[in-house]
Amino acid sequence: LQRANKTPWACTFSSAVLQPGAPYAHNGSPSQHMSVRLKSPDASTEDQPPSKRIKMTRSDTATPDNDLDEDLHSRQLAVYGRESMRKMAAAQVLILGLNGLGVEIAKNVILAGVKAVVLHDNSCVELRGLGAQFYLTEAEVGVNRAAACEAKLQELNSAVAVSSSQDELTESFVAPFDVVVDTTSLLAEAVKLDELCRKVGTAYVRGELRGVFGSVFCDFGESFTVLDQDGEEPVTGIVAGITHSAGSTTISCVEDERLEFQDGQLVSFTEVEGIAELSNGKPHRIKNVKAHSFELLEPLQDAGEGGYKRGGLVTQVKEPKQLQFRTLAQALEKPGEFLLSDFAKLERSSLLHLGFQALDAFQVEHGRLPAPADSGDAAAVVAGTAALAKKAGLEDQVDEAVLKLLAFGARGELNPMAAMFGGIIGQEVVKAVSGKFHPLFQWFYFDSVESLPDAAELTPDACAPRGSRYDGQIGVFGAPLQEQLADLNVFLVGAGALGCELIKNLACMGVATGDKGLVTITDDDVIEKSNLSRQFLFRDWDIGNAKSTAASAAAEKINSALKIRALQNRVSPDSEDVFNDEFWGGLDVVVNALDNVNARLYVDSRCVYFQRPLLESGTLGAKCNTQMVIPNITENYGASRDPPEKQAPMCTLHSFPHTIDHCLTFARSEFEGLLEHAPAEANAFLLDPEKYLATALAAGDSSARERLERVVRVLVTDSCVSFQDCIKWARKLFEAQFHDRIAQLVFTFPEDAATSTGTPFWSPPKRFPHALTFSADDASQASFIQAAAILKAQAHCIELPDWATAAPKVAAAAAAVDVPEFQPQAGVRIETDPKAAAAAPAPSAGDDEAVLARLAYQLKEAQAKLPAGYKLEPIAFEKDDDTNFHMDFILGLANMRARNYSLPEVDKLKAKLIAGKIIPAIATATSLATGLVCLELYKTVQKKPIEAFRNTFANLALPLFSMAEPVPPKTIEHQGLKWTLWDRWILDNDPTVQELLNWFQDKQLEAYSISFGQSLLYNNIFPKHRERLGKKLSELVKTVAKTDLPSGRSHFDIVVACEDEDGEDVDAPLVSIKYA
Q1: Mean pLDDT score, 127-140
Q2: Is the torsion defined by CA of 904, 907, 908, 913 positive or negative?
Q3: Pairing of strands 984-987, 1070-1074
Q4: Integer Cα distance of 106 and 179 in angstroms
Q5: Per-residue pLDDT at 847
Q6: DSSP-derived secondary structure for 703-736
Q7: Is the dihedral of CA 1019, 1024, 1030, 1034 positive or negative?
Q8: What is the number of other CB atoms lying within 10 angstroms of the CB of residue 208?
Q9: In 3-state terms, what secondary structure has residue 1055?
Q10: CA–CA distance, 742 with 842 (Å, rounded to integer)
Q11: If you average pLDDT over residues 646-671, what whole number do you get?
Q12: Is beta strand 1006-1012 parallel, antiparallel or unpaired with respect to 977-979?
């Protein structure tokens, strides 16, 4: 959207005010309707009192890089990039209606970092509104909703100007905004507001929630440019060959990885030698894409003299896309294609498109929404929908049962729905102001009728208001379910971004607010600055505090009735004394909010063992997924695994990098080796030199030699006692990494070297390198030297001089260091095998025993010269502190290595994302995921069948929703027996081995091996194990596994391997042995 130099409308516009008729509210009572009024621009803000005036200047001027707080927004920058973030920082957003949906949108937009958000609402706080609106309190009932939550929303991001307003929506008022988000208007009002937004060039987004039903409409104008449709990194390939013939040009790429190009895409070429037409920067459209090749749609006109020689990188060129949106009035009549979420409901969107209009007509006619579970009101909505369907020729799509449920719960606003749609609409706002990602075009309808109780349970009495904050939810689900939620015992694992959203949702829903209810939340992490851009319960003053403690305190402010216990324990085998059998056995449901697979797998295994439901979710940038793990009816989380992340071969990282990722991975490894692992190894020696050396000499192997060599380098070869020594070490490190290593490599493998098969050694993807010469005038080299010297000084506890912070002075001192000329040596082995697990070992200066003795002698001499109690300070890599020089070291090392191999260099942010392994994250995807999870919680509490549950994958960038029933667990059958992973076989009275074998034989299974943890208790192939047949299994656990059975438990678990009568292995369930 081009906003530059745009001024408010000055022409005469109809002075008529849009009269909405009788005010209405979501609960049907008058006085709660936010009346939208459109007036002519002569009612200028200049004529209003200063307190009512909103002064904003629309601007497309890019926010300077240094105005972006990259520490705060690093995860978000990984998704959007700087350019989109700068556009967002210049955008102004108007949000109409601070109900549950409105506050969720405001939260997400403010966290995203727009310039200003104005909260517009004429309605006051009602007690029932607290069930979905997390920034309202009972004390604020009767206060204007926008004013009540303005200060709390401002706390989310001090860089965003947050204000509230009740002003009339005139042209001059609306014109400065880039986006208007409407959550409360009737359709007639919304149509006129959309028309006004069209006239002033403002994007319009409308969201509407009715119980478990919701809709979104987007209008970004007559001409909107999508700059990046999916947000993914451009696809690349390494050219291996180019063949050109009459009418055809085929590009072949190296076969390391399958090409991800698609027919019809544009690509550009660089570094192609021999064909000038591919080196002019002009993009080419491609066709016939295969695993490792493709063709140019328009063949080359000139293949060059001699044709393709070598080299070449091919990169996807992302094309902008132009979209023409319909107005709301047009889209109501001709909605076009709907964005689908559940392919089991292909015709549901067209039904709800009519149903929502009928609901709006009911509201206009009656001045209220249908009463909860009122059959008469529902019949009127069904009839209205049928009339619209007849007019549209869609009579066969009228599903009365669905429409009845729409009417039954229309007054209720649910927190999970608000969270879900707040994520979706918040993302659409970002798209409108940045052009990043493909907009929702133009309608999205969603329902979760599977979450509802059986229709027979939805009676007027059950759904009648109780005068509580949960009346909205009671009106949708009935009071009995509310009571069940109140008494839940929930284990929330994690208090990060997902955890903050989930605990907020649980508090609003009234979970664990009864006498029997409890939420246990645990997280062993503390709050960092980078968390604040999406972990919305935390503030600046929480930095350094435990996440679980801060999150629980914030949740109690949302709902003081919430019963919550905060722990700081990591959920792992090491904490089973905390999270013991009694703890797991008392839970009703487990909700994961974790950020790593191993932790998820452990919690999953505990839930399977104790047969507890697990609600799982995760996010990655604009993508999110949810998985429901329900005892005995679905497979578990660990039943399916993502393929392991592909790792670059060691030889590629050490000698043949061909991407900046390789350089950064190598730089991170060098940082940890030089500054963390080596000092830590030296400290291990210094702690007890005699014992350390005795152990190494006794081992006498290459591993012991490598450890001693590492310590010798730290305490002898590279020992430093002054900052000047550290500068000298940094200069030598530069020479070793960027000159000597490369000089040796090209000496061993010259540019014309060939393999044993005669092919050029330096064939793609290998890149021929060039050694660097140090220059103190090179800012990148100076920065690396400075960072290396400072970190070396920190490791050796050396005080820094004042001038250490001046990179040019440090670089000048480094330039004065005398560096001997490097002479490459013949016979040096450099690993070239991609399958090798480590770099080629350094040649031994003799047998290991003699070398170990020499190294031990050197260390004894060095240790004798050190002061008593001397130790080093190992440096653990910390990516989120830009003042610690960690990223400066890694950035400098990676970029100099990239320079060696003629690769593009990167800035610190890109380096931080890759080397720091930062997971891209945005608040909108987190909000969406947690809303979906809590919709599934309703089903879990009601013990719904598998057909009711949904696993979801969503990508807000496209946008795309894919919902499906969970997969049932694999069933194993044997001789009439059936079992799944959810089953356990339990044996009482602590049987002997023989008794266990007999028990299996009764099931026509031959048990041949019994194990406890890593210990083998019995296996029939070992003759001596026959002595164990008469022994109790508990005795073998103590004597063979050397494990004391805990006093707090009455059983232990063993794994029994068995086979059937045909000798085929059978996967038996886990076996529990009761011994007390």
Answers
A1: 97
A2: negative
A3: parallel
A4: 12
A5: 63
A6: HHHHHHHHHHIIIIIT--SSHHHHHHHHHHHHHI
A7: negative
A8: 21
A9: strand
A10: 16
A11: 94
A12: unpaired
Backbone region of residue 319 per phi and psi (left: phi > 0; alpha: psi in -120 to 50; beta: other values): beta
Contact 1055, 1014 (CB under 8 A): no
Alpha-carbon span 356 to 792, nearest angstrom? 67
pLDDT of residue 648: 87
Alpha carbon distances (Å) from 131 to 296, 321, 371, 372, 406: 58, 41, 18, 16, 19
- Cis geometry, peptide bond prior to residue 644 (ω within 30 degrees of 0): no
Which of 33-37, 131-135, 295-299, 547-551 is predicted least confidently?
33-37
Residues 6+ apart with CB under 8 A from 558: 134, 504, 507, 508
User: What ranges in 916-992 are assigned the alpha helix state H?
Assistant: 923-941
CB 114 within 8 A of CB 92: yes
Closest to 729 (Cα-Cα) out of 796, 808, 777, 807: 796
Tell me the torsion sign for CA atoms 737, 740, 745, 746.
positive
pLDDT at 497 over 70: yes
- Find where tokens 């979970």 sit: 511
| Nearest C-alpha neighbor of 430 from the set 721, 227, 272 | 227
What confidence tier does 1046 reach under pLDDT thresholds 50, 70, 90?
confident
Predicted pLDDT of residue 304: 66
DSSP three-state, residue 230: coil
Per-residue model confidence as pLDDT tens digits over 412-430: 999 999 999 999 999 999 9
∠ Cα 381 387 388 (to 5°): 90
In this predicted structure, the answer to whether residue 20 has a pLDDT above a threshold of 80 is no
Chain mean position to CA 961:
17
CA dihedral sign, ordered 990, 995, 1001, 1007: positive
SS3 call for 43: coil
Chain segment 752-794, per-residue pLDDT in tens: 999 999 999 999 999 999 999 999 999 999 999 999 999 999 9
3-class SS at 337?
A: coil
Distance of alpha carbon 453 from alpha carbon 219, whole angstroms: 36
CB 476 within 8 A of CB 211: yes
Token pair of 374 as six digits = 């009122």
Model pLDDT for residues 251-293, shown as the tens digit of each residue: 999 988 899 999 999 999 999 998 988 988 899 999 999 999 9
Residues recorded for the chain? 1076
Residues 942 and 626: beta-carbon distance below 8 Å:
no
Nearest-angstrom CA–CA distance, 968 and 629: 10
Q: Tokens 């920065």 label which residue?
A: 783
Q: Which residues are catalytic?
A: 651
Please give the backbone phi and psi of residue 676, each rounded to the nearest 5 degrees, phi first: -120, -60
Q: Cα–Cα distances in Å, from 764 out to 278, 658, 747?
A: 17, 9, 19
Note whether 122 and 164 are within 8 A (CB).
no
What does DSSP assign to residue 235? P
Angle CA 360–362–363, to nearest 5: 65
Q: What is the pLDDT of residue 842?
A: 52
What pTM, to 2 d.p., does this model score?
Answer: 0.90
Phi, psi angles (nearest 5°) of residue 1070: -60, 140
**Is 206 in contact with 49 (CB distance < 8 Å)?**
no
Q: Which residue do the tokens 């004394």 mark? A: 577
Q: How far apart are CA 696 and CA 705, in angstroms?
A: 8
- Do residues 314 and 236 make contact, with C-beta atoms less than 8 angstroms apart? yes
Residue 840's pLDDT is what?
A: 52
Q: Helix (H, G, I), strand (E, B), or coil: what is residue 367? A: coil
Question: Which residue bears the tokens 């509407």?
Answer: 208
What residues form DSSP beta bridges with 1019?
1009
Q: What gap in Å lies between CA 172 and CA 180, rounded to an integer?
A: 13
Question: Using an 8 Å Cβ cutoff, are 1051 and 1073 in contact?
Answer: yes
Distance CA 378, CA 17 (A): 32
* Mean pLDDT for the chain overall: 91
Distance CA 430, CA 948 (A): 33
**Does residue 836 have a pLDDT over 80?**
no
